[in-house]
Amino acid sequence: MVEFQALVTDLTSEEPRSGLRPLRHSKSGKSLTQSLWLNNNILNDLRDFNHVVSLLLEHPENLAWIDLSFNDLTSIDPVLTTFFNLSVLYLHGNSIQRLGEVNKLAVLPRLRSLTLHGNPIEEEKGYRQYVLCTLPRITTFDFSGVTKADRATAEVWKHMNIKPKKVRIKQNAL
Fold first, then answer.
1. 102, 122 contact by CB (below 8 A)
2. What's the CA dihedral at 136, 137, 142, 147 to 10 degrees?
3. Percent of the chain having pLDDT more than 90?
4. Cβ neighbour number for residue 92 with a 10 Å cutoff
5. What's this model's pTM, rounded to 2 decimal places?
6. What is the pLDDT averaged over residues 15-30?
């Protein structure tokens, strides 16, 4: 059995698929876009992602939408947290195993839409509540709007399932 694996570095030699609007380019030949759709590519890691993105995009710091759905990612690579303007992140249909991976995304101030369904973590008890507690600014999760009731349920779930960190006071400090 031959197993095929795509690498992020392969992007530098691929032509982008045509979309509804033509892709604009800068004078240097780099793409003038705020979205990167890398779905359905059998990627299992994001090694060299920052480097490749800087080669392809004129303004990688403006990246607002990354679609990595239907790949073979087993974790949420910290490189994704370096794109502070990221507002949409699609990770559905991958192989993400640990619910705690979601914690990495808490540093993204503009993240509003996230997909994770179709990953093994979806089967974990409290999956939706955990994500909504961890990422309170999310307005759309798994293509479903986040309601006030969702937030209330997540808050109750948090109080029942997540133990607050204990603050220890040193004896000598008193």
1. no
2. 80
3. 66
4. 20
5. 0.85
6. 74
